[in-house]
């Protein structure tokens, strides 16, 4: 089911954004981030997140476009239960390059990065939540979806899911989101990359 971006509810609404039925453009505010404790010792819950309610199992996917150039520039999808239990996944700029990044947070944050493909200024991210597990896949073309991460994630009666973007070191990253959908959980075999 395609989503109208105007129907979402902001957590930390950015000063500059525009939504249509088919797309969302936002520009990040200064020093925005989502993180809990691990390594750095701080907790931040200031990133931009446009939330849409879901049921206890679902698949959501979105197309993300932007010019990620500064340390920790990031954008993608967030799945959230509350401020202590959430996941953000998408692109993140670190060590001079853009990576596909996932932060799984259940009390404390856990960060992983991968580079199944290097061109990350236009990509798609897909998240499936079902039965206490989260499957994260990424795609360049919307057809081939390699696995990025499989992680436990707390089962809940409902979640919020939607686009997220943060710039912990600056402001002014413009990100374009489109092709956002939420539907029943895709339960294909883990090695089915379609």
UniProtKB/TrEMBL annotation:
Q: Which Gene3D superfamilies match?
A: 2.60.120.200
The protein's superkingdom reads Bacteria
Pfam families named among the record's database cross-references: DUF1349
InterPro entries on file: ConA-like_dom_sf, DUF1349, UCP022704
Tell whether Transferase is among the UniProt keywords: no
Q: Does the keyword Mitochondrion apply?
A: no
Name the keywords, alphabetized. Plasmid
PANTHER family with a match to the protein in the record = REGULATION OF ENOLASE PROTEIN 1
Quote the protein name from its UniProt record.
DUF1349 domain-containing protein
